[in-house]
Amino acid sequence: MQEKLAEIRKNAKEKIGSVIDLQGLNELKVKFLGKKGELTEILRSMGTISAEERPKFGSLVNEVRNEIEEAIKTAEENLKEKELEQKLEKEKIDITLPSTKIKRGSKHPLNRVIEEIEDLFVSMGYDVVAGPELETDEFCFERLNLPYGHPARDMQDSFYITDTLLLRTQTSAVQARVMLANEEKTPIRMICTGKTYRREDDATHSHQFNQVEGLVIDKKEKNVSLADLKGTLEVLVKKLLGENLQLRFRPSYFPFTEPSYEVDVTCFKCGGKGCPLCKKTGWIEVLGAGIVHPNVLKLNGYDPEKYSGFAFGTGLDRLAMFKYAIPDMRLLYTNDIRFLSQFDRKDEA
């Protein structure tokens, strides 16, 4: 038995020392140490040895097993290290070569304009408020002085989900929610930015676009006036589109303001001289505004004899196009990396 054990020890060390890969090493491990391996067979035959010799022989078998296991462990470490060296040599990278540049975009122009507007109004003491995109007919129309059957509803052909729920056609709905929630009737200075939806059938409009709405309400003795509105809009337009621009107010009609105005700015391309962009007028329309209609105040819990204010709203897509000279609105929604990668450089200029 001892001679056979010595032979197993010798053969195992020789074969383990000459093995060339991990698969061969694993086969040797099974051959010598597995359930049907040579050492296991010797242990099973211990019944033929006298009881006095068994402890000594068992100790000798364990000693051989430990030696073989240690030899296998050492060989495995050496083979893995050799395999890694071969892999590194085969896949060697020349770090002196220039790296492959990964194409990247930049922050979306709409997000840039939204953040710039929000930062500006926060610095002026306004709150930034959000509201639901799935809105009720009550807040989208009725509380803004647009009762059922009002002809001005036709200007905002809508996506109705049910008889009373629709995708909001304007962020003005948030103004009504803010007024109702302000039970203590503290002064309101807020803006809301977000998506709005209208069914459009022509090539110059999109069914989804972004708006920013602003609302200021205070007690009448604070004298919130058209002059305050004009000053606020001048700050907005000049900060966003250029310090040299001038504003022009034209009388208009909106159901939720009275008086109402369309606000134009001098064409930032020709400086007011007249060009194809401004259709030779020297002016470009950018937003609508006005003094909050008494009916809107009343419908949302305010006494028009005690409170007054102003409101304004504009399309963010339009402002982004003006700010960055984007010729086609569709570029804002295609996510073409060639288009989006330009805007870091534009803001740095």
How would you describe what is shown here?
The chain is of the alpha+beta class. The chain folds into two domains: 89 residues; 240 residues, Bira Bifunctional Protein, Domain 2 (BirA Bifunctional Protein, domain 2, 2-Layer Sandwich), CATH 3.30.930. Helix content is 42%, strand content 19%. Strand 6 and strand 7 form a beta hairpin. The longest helix has 37 residues. The protein is elongated and about 115 Å long. The relative contact order is 0.10.
CATH class of the largest domain: Alpha Beta
How many angstroms does the end-to-end distance come to? 89 Å
Tell me, briefly, the overall form: elongated
Q: What helical percentage do the residues reach?
A: 40-55%
Strand content: 15-25%
Number of separate helices: 13
- Return the CATH topology of the largest domain: BirA Bifunctional Protein, domain 2
- Structural class per helix/strand content? alpha+beta
Oligomer kind:
single chain
How many strands appear in the DSSP assignment? 9
Main sheet strand line-up? 1-4-5-9-8-7-6
Runs with pLDDT <50, length 5+? none
Radius of gyration: 40 Å
CATH architecture of the largest domain, please?
A: 2-Layer Sandwich
Structure summary:
This protein is an alpha+beta fold and 349 residues long. It has helices at residues 2-18, 22-33, 38-44, 54-90, 109-123, 137-140, 172-181, 226-241, 294-299, 316-324, 331-334, 337-340, 343-348; strands at residues 127-128, 134-136, 165-167, 188-197, 208-219, 247-254, 257-266, 283-292, 307-315. The mean pLDDT is 85.
